């Protein structure tokens, strides 16, 4: 499959890993918008948030829970989480990912 993030999960492409478990991988964004800019992704490939539904509440809940754990590990007090869904929302990589952004004062911009 021609998906950058699947290639990162498989090890075909490198990343700076921040966290990994059976279900999720987190790594530093290649083009950080803030001093801390981590992407948290499910290992299972689905393009975007709208590909998930009521049957996925466990996975989506664990995605947020694992994000809070990563934030604790990184000693982040204040941070922003963003999920872009669809190209007009700014999504460029079509494998669900949550942006975890911190380390500077974040104002109106999304991330
Ligand atoms: P999106 O705009 O789809 O919500 O965010 C995609 C993010 O993936 C962007 O912040 C971009 O910098 C990041 N990104 C794109 N390609 C790579 C890559 O090969 N490695 C890493 N670590 N980040 C990437
Ligand atoms: Zn993928």
Structure overview:
- With 111 residues, the protein is of the alpha+beta class.
- The protein has one domain (4-102): HIT family, subunit A (2-Layer Sandwich).
- It has two helices and five strands.
- It has a five-stranded antiparallel sheet, covered by helices on one side.
- 19% of the residues are buried.
- Bound molecules: guanosine-5'-monophosphate (5GP) and zinc ion.
Largest sheet: 5 strands, antiparallel
Strand element count: 5
- How many separate domains? 1
**What class, by secondary structure content?**
alpha+beta
The radius of gyration over CA amounts to 13 Å
CATH architectural category: 2-Layer Sandwich
Number of H- or I-type helical stretches: 2
CATH topology: HIT family, subunit A
Contiguous low-pLDDT stretches (5 residues minimum) are none
- Placed side by side, the strands forming the largest sheet appear as 1-2-3-5-4
- At the fourth CATH level, what is the homologous superfamily? HIT-like
* Beta-strand proportion: 15-25%
Q: Helix-strand pattern, N to C?
A: HEEEHEE
What is the approximate shape? globular
The CATH first-level class comes to Alpha Beta
């Amino acid at each position: 499959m021609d998906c950058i993030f699947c290639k990162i999960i498989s090890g075909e492409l490198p990343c700076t890993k921040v966290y990994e478990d059976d279900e999720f991988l987190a790594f530093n964004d290649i083009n950080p918008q803030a001093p801390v800019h981590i992407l948290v992704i499910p290992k299972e490939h689905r393009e975007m948030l709208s590909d998930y539904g009521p049957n996925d509440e466990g996975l989506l809940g664990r995605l947020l829970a694992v994000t809070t754990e990563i934030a604790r590990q990184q000693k982040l007090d204040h941070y922003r989480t963003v999920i872009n869904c669809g190209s007009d929302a700014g999504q460029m990589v079509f494998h669900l990912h949550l942006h975890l952004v911190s380390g500077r004062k974040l104002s109106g911009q999304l991330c």
